[in-house]
Amino acid sequence: MSDLKNDIQRLEASTMTDMVESRLREYLKRKSFVPGDALPKEQELADALGVSRNVVREALSRLRMLGMIESRKKRGMVLTQPDILGSLERVLDPLILGKNTLRDIFELRLVLEMGLADLIYLRKTSEDIAALESIVAQEVNKQQKPFRVEHEIAFHGKLYQMTGNDTYMRFQKMLLPVFEYVLDYEIQVNGQAEVGKVTHHDLVEILRTGDAEDFRRGMKAHLKPHFDRLKA
Amino acid sequence: MSDLKNDIQRLEASTMTDMVESRLREYLKRKSFVPGDALPKEQELADALGVSRNVVREALSRLRMLGMIESRKKRGMVLTQPDILGSLERVLDPLILGKNTLRDIFELRLVLEMGLADLIYLRKTSEDIAALESIVAQEVNKQQKPFRVEHEIAFHGKLYQMTGNDTYMRFQKMLLPVFEYVLDYEIQVNGQAEVGKVTHHDLVEILRTGDAEDFRRGMKAHLKPHFDRLKA
DNA sequence: TTAGTACTTATGTACTACATAATAACAAAT
DNA sequence: ATTTGTTATTATGTAGTACATAAGTACTAA
């Protein structure tokens, strides 16, 4: 058994496209380009870099996917504000991620949940609480499997929305499917876990009468089954 | 002043490359491709999709950047496990992000900090504590501006490392520059804030003698100046 | 079994060509 | 004079051809 592969790192012949991509990125930074600025023409970039327009376009295609540039015919290309989570979304597929990454994401979701307390107490309104109560009111009807997840999404989704942090909310929404995937897998292997002592209803009650620290404690208790899984 | 732009949404003629990218992604999902599987040849894909190899390559270039595929001459292309944070890293540049996103990221970093407690207490070792102490011991020499940030990175970086969650650690490492950027800006506008009542030294002390909840409270106090900024 | 050689092939890169959309400049019309 | 229509221009989007190169395969020789 040769462990040579571990001792010596395989060298990847990076392609022109890779180099052009990083050169372009470095160029934009060095020249302090900001959203709205126009980029040179493709052919000019190709000439300047000494490569074919083809390679330049493959590199630009990547930046375009990231939302860093937009380009229209004749008008040319302009820098844009990228959607920081868009690229993440493309890649968060539980079926193609490794076990370690899946576990990392599972934990990361728990971190996000525990962080809700501090932000929610900065901005919660009485309308928010009312909305939460109406969600919880429908909970009794939805204990069965297909509806449970749907209800989880509604309740926790509302909590994230209350933080007023759009990135935070979208981020959790993207992690959730991976979280549920890991959970399903865990349940298959280690069996169904008990339910947290603190229910959604309890959490809403805390939001009305308690402070941020109470809510954090409540959330921790609510998530206890999940944290217990991590100990194993 | 015409607000027509707000009333009617501009329609984007999506390019062939965009469509091919999503078709490919959908194809990989539908066929349940997993890392290691070989993809059809570029020309075959082009023929099947009825587009030029050029367009296919621009789409593949994107997947290649995301780390979803690798390709070598003659061997063809294989699906790989993507690096979920690699794409995020390319885009997290404070200079090209909008104000809202910057604020969101600032808050998100605080959420990550507050989440440290729960994971650290699952896995901390006495060696970790010792390492932290040695970092804190050097703190007294590094109160000046260029060194303060460096020290912050060392201390908090170690905390993340103690969670054993690589994604978590890398994620925070990527958010940190944006966080510092927002902080610098905030300080210029609203003036220097007071320092948190709980120091790094105190946090280490809590790690030795307290529980997760103590640590969370300590961290909240440590970060209090930052949370206070959010209230304004 | 190893090493060397020739052959094959899919990707990487370059180049040409042209359709198309968007812009600009100008002319016509109300 | 502002609007509408026409024409010319041009940068991007797409197609297609060609070829170098790396990597795999098969075969041969030592």
UniProtKB/TrEMBL annotation, chains A, B:
Q: Which residues form the HTH gntR-type domain?
A: 14-82
As one GO molecular function, the record gives: DNA binding
What domain of life is recorded for the organism?
A: Bacteria
Keyword set, alphabetical order: DNA-binding, Transcription, Transcription regulation
User: What name appears for this protein in its UniProt entry?
Assistant: DNA-binding transcriptional regulator, FadR family
PROSITE patterns recorded: HTH_GNTR
Q: Which organism is it from?
A: Dyadobacter soli
Pfam families from the UniProt entry: FCD, GntR
Taxonomic classification, please?
Bacteria, Pseudomonadati, Bacteroidota, Cytophagia, Cytophagales
